[in-house]
Amino acid sequence: MTEQNRTNDTSRISISAHYTGYVWYHHQLSADEFATSAGRWAYRILTPINAILKRLAGANIDTFLLQRHLVIDHQVEQLITQHGVTQIIELAAGLSPRGYRFSQKYPQLTYIETDLPGMVERKQQVLASLPVTDTHRVVRCNILQQEGEESLAAVFKQLDPLQPTLVISEGLVNYFELPIIRSVWQRLAKHLQNFPVGVYVTDLYPDLQEHPSYRYVQWAQKLVGFFTRGQWPLHYRSDTDIEQGFQQDGFAHVTVLNPSQLYDSVNIPHSKTPSLVRIICAQR
Ligand SMILES: C[S@@+](CC[C@H](N)C(=O)[O-])C[C@H]1O[C@@H](n2cnc3c(N)ncnc32)[C@H](O)[C@@H]1O
């Protein structure tokens, strides 16, 4: 294995997809096929921690996972129905049912789910037992790969440059140090320039040091780090910093959504304290 391949090998993170996949299943957002025994096991282990967090902080891990998942879904729905998006690339899709759900609802969509090879194989097995559309597929893509068959560029080559296009990532960006993920965002922004509409939607956990639940976030960082054998850094100190960062990375129009401000318009679980997660909608 070359040095480059070694640093680009982040497959240790894939275990986290079993957990989030099980959360979507547990909350009736997914079909039985998406739940794995590893996910069920992780969910059981974390049940007492979730209960303590709920009592102490007024929200648990599921609360913020569901907030991010449902706000992203809401954005995707709007981009399809109001902005004519017909092509979607979902990066690091893991065991998320989103590609399946949206392709069933909007069969005209080209929906390309991507992930690392092991997870792609797993997802293909899941989808093989479900009625998927002809234009819904799962392919390999390592976001750190600058070129070659598993690069972002190779996935973009599969799209029609004349169609409004959306890229989604969920539960991915906080596994990387900011300069590394920013270089991915810069490459994404360049690719999205080639489409009549080019949008990127992602979740992001900022470093909200003044937040009343900050110490629980630090617990969560340790927990995620333990399970995935790595770091889980928080990015940017405020919504304004996020907006400026994305603009510097090549996105002209950036909206930072705080789920706490969407309780009236999106059906999501409420947290007692302000939300800890943000959804970014960035356009070229
Ligand atoms: C927390 S899971 C999120 C899965 C899914 N998006 C969700 O929200 O349920 C993180 C995902 O990132 C994928 N991943 C890790 N490193 C990656 C990389 N370098 N390129 C692409 N995907 C990667 C993992 O395989 C895993 O599926």
Explained architecture:
This protein has 284 residues and is α/β, with parallel strands linked by helices. It is built from ten helices and seven strands. It has a seven-stranded mixed β-sheet with strand order 3-2-1-4-5-7-6, with helices on both faces. Helix 2 packs across helix 3. The longest helix has 23 residues. The chain is globular, with a radius of gyration of 18 Å. The model has no long low-confidence stretch (mean pLDDT 94). The site of S-adenosylmethionine has 21 residues, from helix 2. S-adenosylmethionine binds next to helix 2.
Produce the secondary structure layout.
Elements: H1 3-8, H2 15-26, H3 37-57, H4 61-83, E1 87-91, H5 98-105, E2 110-115, H6 117-128, E3 136-140, H7 152-156, E4 165-169, H8 178-192, E5 198-204, H9 214-228, H10 239-248, E6 253-257, E7 278-283
Parallel strand pairs: 1-2, 1-4, 2-3, 4-5
Antiparallel strand pairs: 5-7, 6-7
This protein binds S-adenosylmethionine.
S-adenosylmethionine binds at residues 10, 13-14, 16-17, 20-21, 91-94, 96, 115-116, 119, 142-144, 170-172.
Quick overview of this protein structure:
It contains 10 helices and 7 strands.
* Structural class by helix and strand composition: alpha/beta
List each distinct ligand once: S-adenosylmethionine
Number of strands: 7
The fold-level CATH name is Rossmann fold
| Helix and strand run | HHHHEHEHEHEHEHHEE
Fraction in helix: 40-55%
Question: How confident is the prediction overall: mean pLDDT?
Answer: 94
CATH class term:
Alpha Beta
Secondary structure tally, helices: 10
The N- to C-terminal Cα distance equals 36 Å
**Per DSSP, what share of the residues sits in E-state strands of 2 or more residues?**
5-15%
CATH architecture: 3-Layer(aba) Sandwich
> Reading side by side through the largest sheet, how are the strands ordered?
3-2-1-4-5-7-6
CATH superfamily, called what? Vaccinia Virus protein VP39
The low-pLDDT segments are none
Total domains = 1
> Major sheet, described briefly?
7 strands, mixed
Q: What coarse outline follows from CA principal-axis ratios?
A: globular
Radius of gyration: 18 Å
For this structure, the quaternary state is: single chain
